[in-house]
Write a structure and sequence with these properties.
The complex is a heterodimer of chains A (221) and B (251). In chain A, strands 2-1-3-4 form a four-stranded mixed sheet, with helices on one face. In chain A, α1 (12-23) links the parallel β1 (3-7) and β2 (28-32). Chain A has nine helices and four strands, in the order βαβαββααααααα. In chain A, α1 crosses α6. By secondary structure, chain A is of the alpha+beta class. Chain B has 251 residues and is α+β, with helices and mostly antiparallel strands. The mean pLDDT of chain B is 94. In chain B, α1 (12-23) packs parallel to α3 and α1 crosses α6. A four-stranded mixed sheet of chain B has the order 2-1-3-4, covered by helices on one side. Chain B has eleven helices and four strands. In chain B, β3 and β4 (62-65) form a beta hairpin. Classes of the chains: A alpha+beta (221), B alpha+beta (251). The A-B interface holds A 50-51, 62, 64-66, 68-70, 72-73, 76-77, 90-91, 93-95, 97-98, 101-102, 104-105, 109, 146, 149-150 and B 50-51, 62, 64-70, 72-73, 76-77, 90-91, 93-95, 97-98, 101-102, 104-105, 109, 146, 149-150.
Chain lengths: 221, 251
C-alpha cells in the first residue's frame, strides 16, 4: 500500500515533506486537505491526525504527524535516501535535531504568526491582530539574525556547515518561503540585511529543483 | 574529559537531562547557571550556547543545546542506555519524535508561559504578566486534555502505550512538574480533571526514583517559599483592619 501524504501546499511543513518525497523518489499519494476550506477540521481527518494539523502521513497502518518526525521517518524507513538528508553520524544528526527543535519556537513561530496576521487571516476567515503581528515581527527578525550569524556561520552552502542539504534546510527554507506572500517591501525589509540567508535559500532551491519551484507555485498567486 | 551539563534546576528541560544522566549512570559534571542571577546572559555562557538558554552540554569539543537533541544524543552516544529510552525501532522512535515536537508549541509553551507569568517571574527578577498568562492558559488546558485523551490512551503506563519510560516521558513530566509552584487551587483546577496524567506523573517519578525527587528539590523549595508568601499575604489582608486602627497614632 502506497504511502499517503495529507498536505496543503499553503502549509510550509507540508511543502517540506512533499519536496523530500519527490527529491528522493519516494512513491506516495498526495491527499490534499485544504485549510482554507476547513477540511482539516472534519471528523474524517481527525481519524488521521487528532491534532487536526498538516502534514500527516499514513504508511500502511502506521500514522504519523509533526513534519520533523515525518521527515526523519521517511529518511530512515525508505531505501535510497542519501545520508546527507539525515546523517547516521551521531554528532551531525544531533545538530540537525538542535536546529529543528530551535525552529519551533523561533523561525516557525515568528514567520507563521507574522504572515498569518498580516496577510492570510482575511482569506481563511479570521481577523487580523496587529499586536500579535508586532510580537511575531520581533521574533521573526531575531530568528533571521540567528540564522545569519549562527546557523549559517560555518563555511558551507547549507545549515550547520553542510555542503549538501539536510531535512533541516528543507524545513526551514520552506518556512521562509512563506514570506513570498508578503508585499515586496515587507519581504525586503526582513530578508534584505541577510546575505547568507538569501544565498542559502537559493542553494536549497537549486539543490531540490524542479520540485522546489513546482511545490511552491501556490505561494506565488 | 567528562561531559559538562550547563543547567539550572528551576528549568524544566534542565531537570530532564540531569535525571536522564543519573538514571543511566552517565558520568557528568553539572555546571550551575542561575537564571535568577542572569548567568545565562553572560558572554561566557554565550560561548557555550549563543541562544542563551538552558540546558546545554559540552562533550569534549562538541557543544549542543535544545534538551530533546541533548537527550537523543546522550541516548545514542553513551553505552548502556536501555533501548526503551529511545527505541531503535523506526516506528516507535518516530512516535517519540512526534510527541517531543508537539510538546514545544503545546505543553511546554502553555505550562512554562502560564506558570512564569502568574507565579515564577519575580523569583527570576521579572514582573508578572497576567495578559501573557491569559493567552497561555487555553494552550495549557488543551495540551493537558490532549495528553489525557490521546498521548496516554491505550494500556501502557507511559506515553504512546509504553510500559517503560522514554525520553518523552521525562521531558513532558518535568514540564508539568513546574505547575507545583502554582497556588493549590489553581493546580487542582488544571490537573484535577486528568486522572491518567496524575497517574503517569507518579509512575514516571517512581520509575526514576530517587533521582526525580532529588533533582526536583530546588523547585519544591521555591514552591514552599511561594506558599509561605501567599499565607503571609492572606494574613496581612485579614489584619488590615487592625493596622488601620493603629495608624493614626503613628502620624
Amino acid at each position: 500500500m502506497k504511502l499517503k501524504v495529507y498536505a496543503d501546499r499553503m502549509s510550509q511543513p507540508s511543502r517540506a515533506v512533499i519536496i523530500f518525497c519527490k527529491v528522493n523518489v519516494i512513491d506516495y499519494e498526495e491527499i490534499k486537505v485544504l485549510i482554507s476550506k476547513g477540511q482539516h477540521l472534519t471528523s474524517e481527518f481527525a481519524e488521521i491526525n487528532p491534532m487536526k494539523r498538516l502534514p500527516a502521513i499514513v504508511d500502511g497502518r502506521f500514522k504519523l504527524f509533526e513534519s520533523h518526525a515525518i521527515l526523519i521517518y521517511l529518511a530512515c524507513a525508505f531505501p535510497g535516501v542519501a545520508d546527507h538528508w539525515y546523517p547516521a553520524d551521531v554528532a551531525k544528526r544531533s545538530r540537525i535535531h538542535s536546529v529543528l527543535d530551535w525552529h519551533h519556537s523561533n523561525l516557525r513561530r515568528g514567520a507563521d504568526t507574522y504572515v498569518s496576521n498580516a496577510t492570510i487571516a482575511p482569506v481563511v476567515g479570521r481577523p487580523l491582530n496587529p499586536q500579535a503581528a508586532a510580537e511575531a515581527e520581533t521574533l521573526l527578525s531575531s530568528s533571521l539574525s540567528k540564522l545569519e550569524s549562527f546557523w549559517l556561520k560555518d563555511a558551507g552552502r547549507f545549515l550547520l556547515g553542510g555542503n549538501q542539504p539536510s531535512i533541516a534546510d528543507l524545513s526551514l527554507v520552506c518556512e521562509i518561503m512563506e514570506l513570498e506572500v508578503l508585499d515586496e517591501k515587507d519581504r525586503a525589509r526582513f530578508l534584505g540585511p541577510h546575505k547568507k540567508v538569501q544565498r542559502w535559500i537559493e542553494n536549497t532551491r537549486s539543490a531540490t529543483n524542479p520540485h522546489f519551484d513546482e511545490v511552491h507555485e501556490v505561494c506565488r498567486h | 574529559m567528562t561531559l559538562k551539563i550547563y543547567a539550572d534546576r528551576m528549568s524544566q528541560p534542565s531537570r530532564a537531562v540531569i535525571i536522564f544522566c543519573k538514571m543511566n549512570g552517565i558520568d557528568y559534571e553539572e555546571i550551575k547557571v542561575h537564571i535568577s542571577k542572569g548567568q545565562h546572559l553572560t558572554s561566557e555562557f554565550a560561548e557555550i550556547n549563543p541562544m542563551k538558554q538552558l540546558p546545554a552540554i559540552a562533550d569534549g569539543r562538541f557543544k549542543l543545546f535544545e534538551s530533546h537533541a541533548i537527550l537523543i544524543y546522550l541516548a545514542s552516544a553513551f553505552p548502556g542506555v536501555a533501548d526503551h529510552w529511545y527505541p531503535a525501532d523506526v516506528s516507535r522512535r518516530s512516535r517519540i519524535h512526534s510527541v517531543l515536537d508537539w510538546h514545544h508549541s503545546n505543553l511546554r509553551r502553555g505550562a512554562a508561559t502560564y506558570v512564569f507569568n502568574t507565579t515564577i517571574a519575580p523569583v527570576l527578577g521579572r514582573p508578572l504578566n497576567p495578559q501573557a498568562a491569559a493567552v497561555a492558559e487555553p494552550i495549557l488546558s488543551s495540551a493537558l486534555s490532549k495528553l489525557e485523551s490521546f498521548w496516554l490512551k491505550g494500556n501502557g503506563r507511559f506515553l504512546l502505550g509504553g510500559n517503560q519510560p522514554s525520553i518523552a516521558d521525562l521531558s513532558l513530566v518535568c514540564a508539568i512538574m513546574q505547575l507545583e509552584v502554582l497556588d493549590e487551587k489553581e493546580r487542582a483546577r488544571l490537573l484535577g480533571p486528568h486522572k491518567k496524567i496524575q497517574q503517569w506523573i507518579e509512575i514516571t517519578r517512581n520509575a526514576t526514583s530517587p533521582h526525580f525527587d532529588e533533582v526536583h528539590k530546588v523547585l519544591m523549595k521555591a514552591k514552599e517559599k511561594l506558599q509561605n508568601q501567599r499565607l503571609k499575604a492572606a494574613k496581612n489582608e485579614e489584619g488590615g483592619s487592625d493596622m488601620k486602627k493603629a495608624l493614626p497614632s503613628r502620624l
